[in-house]
Design brief:
Layout (H helix, E strand, L loop, with lengths): L2 E7 L7 H11 L5 E7 L5 H8 L3 E6 L13 E2 L1 H6 L4 E5 L2 E5 L2 H12 L7 E5 L3 H12 L3 E6 L7 E2 H6 L2 H4 L3 E4 L25 E4 L8 H8 L3 E3 L2 H16 L1
The structure holds NADP nicotinamide-adenine-dinucleotide phosphate.
């Protein structure tokens, strides 16, 4: 029986989710399973998408709809509810249930890589859907963190605050980019921080995986930091989504 899965977001061409699931379906002999990219100009287009594709079983959700999609759900997993963002939707009899696999995927990925010692401090750049998942993971790992936002009211610091107080960056040993700055096709963009403040004691994680080495990671690496991109997180969250869709 034909089963369809896919990714919704405002721009989805950067995503490696289709390649991941196409390969998985091929390897597992699931010839009637398909994974497609569905760019939506606004989140309300989801209604039309569902009407036109009654054989959709599951969706991944990407930028900028992880929070906006909540209003379409009939049900939400308690874990996703406490995070306040959804990156996986399971569709059953036309009803949508939301889940979050980003948070545990980030947790698994960062825990293997970052030597969380007493006094570790993180800075999270951005306050959107994936930032909320990252915040939840850091709380579970007991890593103290502060949020950096363009808006004074959304975070603990603005980028101007970082400029005025260099110790914020120099004393935060884990820096995580959850903004889309640097993602393909806009590969020259990067978060506006002073990269000169970074050094070998810093661990720098970019949720972006396309390109594999963003400008943000390149600048950080040039300062001797330890860097990681979001590819492993993508794979872990995709496997977790697969388990949800098949349960
Ligand atoms: N590797 C993975 O598995 C994985 C998982 C999830 C997300 N991601 C990646 O993470 C990125 C963010 O995704 P998302 O779903 O969290 O998006 P989102 O909900 O739209 O949030 C992005 C946040 O970044 C900040 N931001 C947006 N545009 C900016 C700009 N021009 N300058 C500075 N800050 C800006 C905003 O925070 P402020 O308004 O507070 O500044 C915004 O809330 C995307 O590149 C996505 O592909 C990767």
């Amino acid at each position: 029986m034909e089963k369809k899965f896919g990714l919704i977001g405002s721009t989805v061409s950067h995503s490696l989710s289709k390649a991941y699931f196409d390969e998985k379906f091929f390897n597992e002999g699931l010839r009637d399973y398909h994974y497609d990219l569905y760019p939506l100009k606004n989140v309300d287009e989801l209604k039309t998408l569902l009407k036109e594709n009654p054989d959709l079983y599951g969706l991944n959700v990407t930028i900028p709809y992880k929070e906006q999609v909540l209003k379409f759900l009939s049900d939400i997993d308690p874990f996703a509810k406490s995070i306040g963002a959804v990156n996986v939707i399971k569709i059953m009899n036309g009803k949508l249930k939301g889940f979050n696999t980003d948070s545990d995927a980030f947790l698994e990925s960062v825990a293997k890589w970052f030597p969380n010692t007493e006094g570790s401090k993180a800075l999270i750049l951005g306050t959107g859907g994936s930032s909320k998942a990252v915040q939840f993971a850091l709380k579970k790992l007991n890593i103290a963190f502060k949020l950096v936002s363009r808006e004074k009211t959304l975070g603990d610091y603005t980028y101007q605050d970082l400029e005025k107080n260099p110790t914020i960056i120099s004393t935060s040993n884990l820096i995580i980019n959850t903004t889309p700055l640097g993602m393909t096709p806009d590969m020259n963009a990067m978060p506006p921080i002073d990269y000169e403040l970074l050094g070998p004691t810093h661990f720098v994680y970019d949720l972006i995986y396309n390109p594999a080495r963003t400008k943000f990671l390149q600048k950080a690496e040039m300062r001797g930091t330890t860097i990681k991109n979001g590819l492993e997180m993508l794979h872990i969250q995709a496997e977790k989504a697969w388990v949800i869709w098949n349960n």
